[in-house]
């Protein structure tokens, strides 16, 4: 179904809803969507209107061609700007996103392996807390929106172990800069509780500004990439979202 067809369907659905508040809310959402300026997708080159996405219906965030989200387009921009460089490197990508895989392959790595804990989703079945890969076997690891699902201290140690000297991990996580401390609560175990407190039913924490200290304590130096105000509108990015590039330090 095209974006225009979807919009027409939603308008028809709204007219059929008897609750005036709900009907008006749907119309306001559709109107706001239609007023957004055209956007550009650095993942696939699409230009035009984006679609709403996510459980909270973020306006104009889904590329209708490649289905990329905000964080995927930020990665594409980081490649364009030279912040990420995988040419000639051995790369392992955990929980590989479909929108990011073509970007990695296009960058010209020497080798590219994908891994996921669920069989059938990647080249290898890999558990981030106990990675079944040899020591010092990769130059770069990609761990985008995975650390919030696992024991991150074990995972960061394992990522460091499989990297060669000077190796790097590209990391993205849900991050609230206004919180000094990461929020964790082991008593929140139900799907509903985790959805409410951590943003998703399968998350176990919400990171605060101390995320950087957690990564450095695991034996990494950090660089950061953030898009500016104009880029955030043009490419439909989450304002202030960051890509962290963690480089393995000596010792």
General description of the model:
This protein has 251 residues and is α/β, with parallel strands linked by helices. It folds into two domains: 3-62, no CATH class; 70-248, Vaccinia Virus protein VP39 (Rossmann fold, 3-Layer(aba) Sandwich). The chain has helices spanning 3-16, 20-35, 70-80, 101-106, 152-162, 191-198, 211-217, 229-234; strands spanning 39-40, 47-48, 51-53, 58-62, 90-94, 111-116, 124-125, 138-144, 163-172, 183-184, 205-206, 220-226, 242-248. The strands form four sheets. It has a seven-stranded mixed beta sheet. Helix 1 (3-16) packs antiparallel against helix 2 (20-35). The model has no long low-confidence stretch (mean pLDDT 89).
Keywords:
single chain, about 250 residues, alpha/beta, Rossmann fold, 2 domains, 7-stranded mixed sheet, two-stranded antiparallel ribbon
